[in-house]
Amino acid sequence: MSLLPSCREVSRLLSEALDSGRPLGLHVRIHLGVCEVCRRVLAQFALIRHGAARAPEGGPDLSPEAKARLRRSLDGR
Ligand SMILES: [Zn+2]
Fold it and tell me: Residue 4 and residue 40: Cα distance in Å, rounded?
């Protein structure tokens, strides 16, 4: 039995917290403090949610050229 949740548990709790808008539990925040993998997961969740929340409202104000350029620069990584 472990005091801290596993990475799998943390990613589930993160997505629940983001969906419900509730703050993260203390044990999740402690895990994030010591686990870089889960910090990255949290950043990705935040990005995805940010994108998903904006998409229905007409999307970002980017020209097709700017989007293509952005996509190319992301692919280049
Ligand atoms: Zn972790």
Answer: 18
Q: How far is the CA of 44 from the centre of ligand 1 (A)?
A: 14
pLDDT of residue 1: 44
Whole-structure pTM value: 0.57
pLDDT tens string 16-52: 888 888 888 899 999 999 999 999 998 988 888 777 6
Boundaries of domain holding 16: 7-75
Domain count, the chain: 1
Q: What is the pLDDT of residue 48?
A: 81
How confident is the model over 3-18, as pLDDT tens digits? 678 999 999 999 888 8
Composition of the chain by helix, strand, coil, percent to 5: 75, 0, 25
CA of 22 to the centre of ligand 1 (A): 20
